[in-house]
Amino acid sequence: MEKLWRPLGHLFLTFFLYNFGTFMVAPTITDVTMFAVCPHQPECSIAIYLTGFQQAVIGLGTLFMMPLVGNLSDRYGRKALLTLPMSLSIIPLAILAYSRSRNFFYAYYVLKTITSMVCEGSVQCLALAYVADNVPVRRRAAAFGILSGIGSAAFVCGTFIARFLSTASTFQVATAVAIAGTVYMRIFLPDVAVEESLKTPILCRGKEKIVADFPNEISPIKSEQIFKSRPSLRDMLTMLQSSKIFTQAAVVAFFLSLSDAGFQASVTYYLKAEFHFNKDQFADLMVISGVAGTVSQIFLYSVAWSFWVPYAASMLSIFFVFSQPCMRAIVSKQVGSCEQGKAQGCISGISSFANVVAPLVFSPLSALFLSDNAPFDFPGFSIMCVGFAMMVAFVQSLMIRVPPPIAEERVDNPNHVDSYA
């Protein structure tokens, strides 16, 4: 643990502060949305559709931004790219910290949608790439697990503190923490430059050839414009086709994100309509979920006819927290050092595509089965469908057979043939 903490301590604290400020407002945002859109109503289809539309637009934006952010970080450094999403995330929080009236809510809604196209997932993607830069291949799974644990700790701490704050104070504290995290990152986080000599054959062979052909010239790569740095569709397809394992991990990432985004689009409004949850009860539930994990609750929420079942379900979910660090570690081992940002950005982009699909599917389902026009009495039907998507990810994950790390072997032996390509 000490060996991991020394090079990554500042990153871990930065990651904690960012997630602390982000997750702190999660228990309150449903009440704020309902009050601004449908005041004094326990069920509101408009609020569900607004939330679903926002998630779809954000997912569409991050689908294009994540590979760009990851690739740019490979060239210009993780710290420079971390500054943008961490700074932008402050703006929507500051708006609701000032006022939560209808006009300010819609201003928040628009700016949150725009900024989240860059912020949503960027900090995690860049943090994973930063960890891969500083940790040897054999220890990355443990490092990714610690990073995931820190994110979970931030979730628990943020939602726990929100339990004891008023809505106004919650957004004010979240804004202050987001500012502190950004300032701390700029002052203390050391940047790590990707070494020019580290290459992998998936997408870097072309770069090696250019350097070899023009040893005394300025590399054309360095003169490219920023927006030309975005990986092309061919680059992404090449990365997916480079390894069967990478493709399988991408499928798992898609269905994990589909189920997670679908769950987020459904569960809060379900609990609000069925059990009249408020901010404090949402915070209680999120604290329990953050401590225990969030797998079995997906299935039990769909049949939650007792007020106490959601709390019991949260305690039964333990193992979901292992999925992301394990999957990211598998992906990290399939590429070399010069493409960690690109690989993690590719997986994040696929996850973002799932975030586009999920609200388009689950928000209408939630609105339909929570309304009086439901075809049959099953308020948790959309959450049961989320469970099916999670099961698909689980079955696909069982099919992954990971060989010994091959990325570093390719660097040492350029004639090595990948039998999994």
Automatic annotation (TrEMBL):
It is found in: Membrane. One of its GO terms (cellular component) is membrane. Keywords: Membrane, Transmembrane, Transmembrane helix, Transport. Gene3D superfamilies: MFS general substrate transporter like domains. It comes from the Eukaryota. It is a multi-pass membrane protein. Residues 1-193 form the Major facilitator superfamily (MFS) profile domain. GO terms for molecular function: transmembrane transporter activity. The chain crosses the membrane at residues 7-26, 46-69, 81-99, 143-165, 171-189, 282-302, 343-369, 381-400. This is Major facilitator superfamily (MFS) profile domain-containing protein. It comes from Linum tenue. The lineage of its organism: Eukaryota, Viridiplantae, Streptophyta, Embryophyta, Tracheophyta.
